[in-house]
Queue: 4 jobs
Job 1
Amino acid sequence: MSDIPPTMPEHRAGFAISGVPHAEGLAMTILEIGDGNALTMIPYAEHLIGDPETRVIHGGVVTSLLDNACGIAVTSKIKRFGAIATLDLRIDYMKPAMPDQPIHAFCECYRVTRSIAFVRGIAFHTDRSDPIAACTAAFMLNTAAKREAKP
Amino acid sequence: MTPAEILKAANLAGTKPDLSALVASIPYARYLGIQVDRKGTEITTVLPFARHLIGNPVLPALHGGVVGGFLETTAMLQAIFEVGGAEMPRPVDINIDYLRSGRPIDTFARAVITKQGRRVINIHAHAWQDEHDRPIATLRGHLLLPEG
């Protein structure tokens, strides 16, 4: 991982993501990172609540977690950072998240073409077969290269 | 007041819920800093730029999850405003298209109910920054209405 540009935060297993303000705000942590997949986690926190009566986490938090985990899965596959953009993201909400429990996301980039990466993932508490939400996403690759090419 | 208390109060009074109070009663919406600009029945949500919303520090650009959560909240507020009820609707699925990178400036959004069924609402929302005709993201989703 020596070819990482110094401007982007390094993605390392066992560390909270730093340098990405919103991921920091959610205390998002990478637990495992492989060749095209990533397991991330956010701890339960009061400012992430969507419904104060049930203390269930807001759907938007799950969206942020899955979007970020999908992005990490893509960068782990293409071995480059900072040059991808989400094209679309679909999320199916299966059940509300339980209060006081961390939420995990496992995302895998299962196909990469010259310009597009395809990713799928799930969010869950402890059991991957009992998901909170599932997602599919497509990412545009090499967006930074095109941006830099412009005068 | 909690969201449920705000909705109950509106139901009792036979008025539309106070969307600004509603959005302020949701911790994550408050953390993002979402505001509501209501002119009659026209609702625009506002997401003032703040550093903690950034997802790509190099560009810099808003986090995709922030834009998604903002659109989702906009859709929920529009649904509760039009449909009423004592509970917030629940998202079943959402589909977000990212059209342009969210620049580090204020973002706005509106939602339109495409079809209201007995249990499920189909809703579309779009977000823009300085030009309304240049959306940065759109959302299509289904919301489940509480039973009863």
Job 2
Amino acid sequence: MKANALKRGFVSALRGEIVTLWHHFRDAISARSRVHGSRPLLTAADFQEELAILGLSGRRFVPKDYADALGDYLGISINIHVIPDNWYPELSRRLAISGRLGELCYSEQLTLAAIFVPGSLPPLVSTLTILHELGHLAAGDVLILPSEDVGGSHGLHAEETAFMTSPVRKGKKLARGSPFAEEALREREANMRASYALFAGCLGSDSPYADAMFSVL
Amino acid sequence: MSAVQHQALVLGAISFVAFVFFTYVALSSRRTKFGVFAACNLLFVTMVFGAVATFDLSDERTEVVVAIMTELPIVLIVAWVCLALAGGLPYLSGTLPVEPAVRRARLRTLLRSAPFVLLFFVGVAGVIGFVFPSPAIRVYAPAPIEFFVMKGLIMVPEGLYSGLAALVFVMAGRSSGLKRRLYFKNLAFSSGMAFIAMIAIESTIFAGVRVWVADQNRLAILKMLNTFETCLAISCIIVFALGLSLRYTPAVGGPLLQRLQTGWLHAQEQFESLEWQAVNAGAAQRLRDASDAVAMTCRLRNVSESDMEKALATIRLVAVMKDPSSETQHITPEAARKLYELQEEILGDDVLASKISWAAGVRSRASEPQTVKSAPLHDALRAALDLIDDHENDVPMGTRPLWYWIAAVSAADAKIIDPPVHASVQPGDYDGYRAAVDAYYAARISIQTSEDDD
């Protein structure tokens, strides 16, 4: 009985060591892939794949439809708030002075995202601003670990094809790749997502990228 | 001529005809990377069958090599199609996978595994064929069980993957709202892959018959199966040819779209957002009073809501372009002119101009969407450029709408610009201008009176 207990203790210790070793190995592998990850900027074709995942490829849609589909996919509630200037006149002025056009608030605990845009924005700018903020959600920019956020735009060269990505905490995102480490690149990609979304939403089944998904040979 | 040579001649002739067609496709404007790949494979198959028909290959190991070489191009075509469906050919073909594969990650992974799995089994079959040689190309001769194993190792995975590809093409073809041409294209490729799957099944049965069926029945069954295989091969080539011939040209070209995304949209968004920031940050203070007067004037003259928006946009643009502060330094007449030209380019394409729109109210589908033409910025840009003395003006003064004159009078009154002049005539010569002046000063008095009352 004592021998059995000793054997059990040895087996469980060995199992514990193996599990620990496996965790170290897995962490090392994932950390390596996260730290040294790089990818190019999003293309219109990549974005079309994202739309297909959301079920919007080949369909005409407005930002609200995109927000709903994205919210369903991410398992969060996305609310768009267009704030009339007479409700909160300071909002437009403050945003304008800070050089911003809208604001995204995200709460992981509440599984809630809210986008605020001033009502005085021109319609096209308002549409693109909402799509831009939704682009941040799609890219998983809100999941970036705070310590890894690299500000500024140093090292940003147009001729580069791949840029360093940032590690993210556990959470769902639509984009296949990780978010970029540099904030300027994240903003640039959110702009690209907004522009792709606007055209895809307008063209629907007339989009050449939507058609390309049914003509692969 | 032996039975082997006869069959090789028939299959070689079919392959050659198919090669000629695919070469025509590959060299024509309908060229696709798949067309080129298929043509190369068919040439290779034609040469192998030609060699079999010409030379007497009696050595069993040589027969195994030849049998695998004739199967290899088909295996490669199946692998190529599966990779294309999974979007796994980024540098050789289009980067996009077929839509059903995007929405099903496991299906996509399975399709991506095709080249590795298929080539692995071809390799294993080759090893078995070399270790246990068999009369692989003597079509009517009895064969050992090793031949069946070798054949099955190639044909079963090939049949499964081509069947899967056929199913994916069917799923793509069943998508709602698909254009008719794309529907038939997917239907044709689905049939083609189904024919390949059927050939694979038929070949496996063929090998089984050679192993297990007795002499007296074997020849009749094999001849029947051979004829069936030839029919399947011809049908397969015809439907693939049809699928490749059904070329679909989208209404809006990718390069044009890319240019608009990076050119026009970026310029218009930057222009409008900078203008909004400049106005809201208070960089163009003179504008506020002028805007109120413009709105009141438009109401007095029953100017439509959309024209009033144009007048307001014009005066905002003029104010921002004339403002010397750093916030508005990017909004220059040159930038305005460039944006106007990009807009004109879009308006030149009727299909595109009618489709590119955005909601005037973001949350609702009900409100009338704005287009490049209907958005106030387009006409306002032209008007603002005219008011700040743009020398490329080619619009006759007499045809100017009332909203233009209201914006002009207001901008001049607010000292944003000098009173509008044009060539040798005075604006006062025009009815529109005189009407705008009268209404504008009436509006100013009205505003002043209401302010005094408050």
Job 3
Amino acid sequence: MAFKHKHLISIKTLSVSDILTILETADSFLDISAREVKKVPILRGKTIINLFFEPSTRTRSSFELAAKRLSADISNFSKQTSSALKGETLKDTVLNLEAMKTDALIIRHSCAGAPHFISTFCQSHVINAGDGAHEHPTQALLDAFTIRQVKKKFENLKVVIVGDIIHSRVARSNIILLNKLGAHITLVGPPALLPREFADFGVAIENNLDRALEGADAIMMLRIQLERQQGNFFPSLREYRNLYSLSPARFRRAKRNAIIMHPGPINRGIEISADLADSVKSVILRQVENGVAVRMAVLYLLLGGKESETAD
Amino acid sequence: MQEKIKARIMDAAKIKRSLHRMTTEITERNRNLKNLVIIGIRTRGVFIGKRIARLIKSQEKISVPVGVLDITLYRDDFSELEAQHMVKKTEIDFSIKDKDVLLVDDVLFTGRTIRAAMDSLIDLGRPKSIQLLVLIDRGHRELPIRADYIGKHLPTSRKELVQVNLKEVDEKDEVLITEPAGLK
């Protein structure tokens, strides 16, 4: 095994074997969180900073717990309480934090490309925890991990991704990742949220949810990202719900053993009915649980071993 | 890396005899075999541990549970390694709290693996005692650690390698001394 990346910015740079290495490593980390002593000493002495310029519950706590369970020291930075409000540039912020001798920076930013930009000048490992509408690699990895846990394979699985595709970094990372692993992806959403250009990824595009759900193995519901929508992408939330909400009646069109996924946070009653979100078909909380193990694997693989000379 | 075989130290019959002898020593020393559990260190310690459990079963009619320990996350040379070791699962589906743990490995060398294994075990629960069984003790300890049951003492030089082959994963049972070819 050789995982030779310094940073994790994008799923694009990962080979299939890199991805499988991450998933298998995560599998080994899964039971550490179930132990009485939920901690192993492997990253003792490493310093990690969670650099979140956008709000987050899951990803930030997940990275924080992953780092702590590997015995790394982690410090949280959030935009609201930082000097970024006083006009400090991103580069200055990073250089100043790095001067405190960090080993890794986990960054979430509303600008696509911010983690890549940071990786061009900083010595620490950079992990993308979501950049604008570009990518969210660890979310896609934990989604793939969850699918594999239930379905045991990816080949010929029909994965349907529903909703606000255009604003979704989760969708982008998942499309790239699941494509590499051999799943068949169908994207569904209103035309304004699902440009035809997405077909270039080699995926099926569909505007009718009922049709798309036929024979689905996994259904990934996305949140409508109102905070990213300046114009009007659809006439009303009520219309959106009528056409694209996952209801029990609609869900029956999918395969009987289909699973329902959601990266969170959920808008109950908008993209998914509350009953379905809490049903046995939903693996939403399993995704969250797996997220910690997947992020432990990513931290271990990036920070472990000698500084690798290979650049991404 | 090509390795040159310098000597064949044990064959299948010798390995079998020493496992039998060590099993007798274990049953002599552990009056309460029902409190014994075996933990094998990945990879070959697991197979030796399973063989010992089978021998105890046939001699004493007592089933001793066998667990699998991966010590990668407890290594102390982690940051010196060129690439990360693949982390494998620790599979111990019984509690080790208050148990007499028999830790099993193929070769005892610097003692660092055993240190890592003991730290890992103690994070999993507080055993009553830990004993150590190794097939080969090749010396060169860097930590104050010794084995309770030893298949064979084997004086070696540091640059030699001791290779334990077991038929569960290798072609046959044997212990070899090899030397990396092209060593300066």
Job 4
Amino acid sequence: MPNDRFDIAIVGAGPAGMSAAIAASRHGASVVVLDEQRGPGGQIYRAITSAPARRRDMLGPDYAAGQPLAESFRACGARHITDAAVWQVTPEGAVHYLHQGATSTLQADRIVLCSGAMERPFPIPGWTLPGVLTAGAAQILLKSADVVPTEPVVLAGCGPLLYLLGWQYVRAGVPIRALVDTTSMQDYRRALPHLGGALAGWRYLKKGLALMRVLKRAGVPFHTGAQDLAAEGSDAVTALSFTVGGQQHRIATSTLLLHHGVVPNTQFTWSLRADHHWDDAQLCWQPDADAWGALSIPGISVAGDGLGIGGALAAALQGELSALGALHSLGRITMTERDRLAAPLQSELRRQLRIRPFLDALYRPKKANRVPADDVIVCRCEEVTAGAIRQFVELGCHGPNQAKAFGRCGMGPCQGRQCGLTVSELIADARGVSPAEVGYFRIRPPIKPISLGELAGPA
Amino acid sequence: MNTSDLIVIGGGLVGTALAYGAARGGAQVIVLDEGDDAFRASRGNFGLVWVQGKGFGMAPYARWTLRSATRWPELAAALAEETGIDVQLRQPGGFHFCFSEEEMHSRQERMQRICDDLGGEYCYEMLDHAALAAKLPGIGPDVAGASHTPMDGHVNPLKLLRALHTACQLRGVRLHGGHRTSRITRTAEGYEVEAGDQRFRAARVVLAAGLGNRELAAQVGLHAPVQPNRGQVLVSERVSKFLDHPTTYVRQTDEGTVQLGDSMEDVGLDDGTTADVLSTIARRGVRSFPALQSLRLVRAWGALRVMTPDGYPIYQESTQCPGAFVVTCHSGVTLAANHVFSIAPWIAGGDPPAGIQVFTGDRFLDPNQTFHHAH
Amino acid sequence: MVSFTFDGNPLKAPAGCTVAAALLAGGVSTFRTTPVSGMPRAPYCMMGACFDCLVEIDGVPNRQSCLITVETGMQVRTQRGLRSLAAQDRETQHAK
């Protein structure tokens, strides 16, 4: 039974969710924010409110920038339900969540989904071995628990987050045995035209190069243009093998950190059956949304990386814009007021997003690391290989849902988070069509695991 | 080549069973199937090979069902041999739980009536709580008892679908996915079917398109007034074996997951799930086996049954368009054996099987009858 | 610091960190073996999205250790394959 009603419910307390809550509360709306963590921050600003100064400093200024935002959020008056796992959001505005071992429901006139992004799956041979984690996982360990590898690590893949982690590790004194970069000269050549004359672009590039310089000065061995990545080992990872220019390399390690980008977390938007489109620049699905983040489902909007990868600062701006959109649609501010407040935000957002085409081109994840060879596990939960999925296509499966029915890929507890993109791209590749034509898994609640007893309710 | 002896419209459990059966008889078959996002009742079912309780007041359906269950081992063996896929048929007998004495009483009446109509072919027993607990340890105190028959069983419905697809492929059936049928026209040699952007020709055509049959049937002088009826199901994480027997609302699959159903809702073409129905299903599951309460859900889904006004199948050859057939049912798993061994040969040109004369679509045209679909 | 056990072995971790972080810091390599094939798994994403960090905590199986804060006295165990239905099963097994 709905036991609470709000003007605006926000799912996720990362930069988008916090900004949306601040803006909506400022204009007098009743706001609730639900988040899985105990403290605000999402993943990018994870544990920001409990981080000691030393750790904040080590993680760098981009992380520290989350603190003033988190403080404003705490002061803004929005109700913040922590340790809450939202398992269903309905088009009618119901938010079902699990909290302290029981299900609850609240009702909202407007819902803003700020579930952010997740690591892009990185299906290479051996990626399921213990000791192989994502760069995001390593950052979470660092941010939430000061846990770092004790043995030398290998970082592999591409993208700003990978280099940032390396930089943070250097500052934390973690030995890095190698940074194996899949980026090649060809990627730079393809990306440079996108840099344009925008000052923000050059500033970003300078920042990135400075970061790299720190890594190089610390003596981190770099390998660029890496291909044929494979994690070796039987019960745990023991080495990363790869080739550069045809030459085989093998680097021993018991901790391998993989990363080749983040992608929008689209579990809620798919479960709502909102319209999505395939974005070929970012190689991911994005929900169709207007300038206010409003989806094809009335009353529900998305802000932040869930729309498309733009980073924390863009997410905060989108959060604020989504709140303005919601406030206007609720009749709390006029259209003129909305547009007046939005103008500087939109202009700043455009500025923040100007670097994206360059980054998307430069760090475009390699096809071999997205559409793997036959013997690589694609669905981690059900252990379905790429080869098995290709066989289903030959049997007549046109899309992921038929493949799921035939082989169980996507039926495990992760609900396709680790395999969905790979399955879409693999089927598209096997059929010779775009992923847009293939579609995605049918995603259904519960979006987070809930027990039968919890669902059944009190006896 | 877009020509064959038989065109099967619909690549689900019904369509592929018919195609497989026809191919076994030597026919050249083309199957036309919609895209990945079609409603596909085949993907949304419980996997029961279920006899008890069916055909109450409709003895031919009870007999038809019993016949299919009896021939199911033959189907499972044929599929295993031809494709290497074990569809995990188990027929250990099944239980229908009753949660009150009143339910026990009406269940017994139902079962006895069917038993009487079939003149003894049908055996069942009513078990009180104690007797049930002896057979199913872990049964909850709320369960008053159950009806049990040795005839019931279950299968892995997704493996069945894959096995049928594979068997079809191995026998040269041409399956065209992503080809939604729009139009069927009569030709000198038989029929031309427009699907996707192509045309296909055959002497015979069978409509096995589920909800799509309604519109297509009219094109060949048949009447198939099917409506969607939603059922929601919960699927849990894998758990070590605790339940061998299928029951109407709870079964444990060969993979170890526990499936809980179900509902019967008239909500049109909406295969979504709703928190209140899922909650009801969870409650009934926990009442049935209290130990289930700690089990975590991995997913829930809704699927649309293809429901005729009285809930019974339609098997009919068009008199207006000889060689055109319609086949529809909402028990595509249970009836799969009949579809392969009895219906398919008829559609491919043989004699109609015994016992299906009553299952015409025309029965729904009688203005003096009202219909109510039994489950 | 918080004291807890993993497969009966004592470990310590700073208060407030997740069970997964505590286990990784304690040098644990395998968290679970899969029900499908028995292959060893350990955390991959640390944010509740991969379900590879499942362990048994205080008799309750298949818990996502990256989402649970470690507490004093917690008994954490490797999640071996399929869970059993009743949490009590493990306790009765140990009593024998």
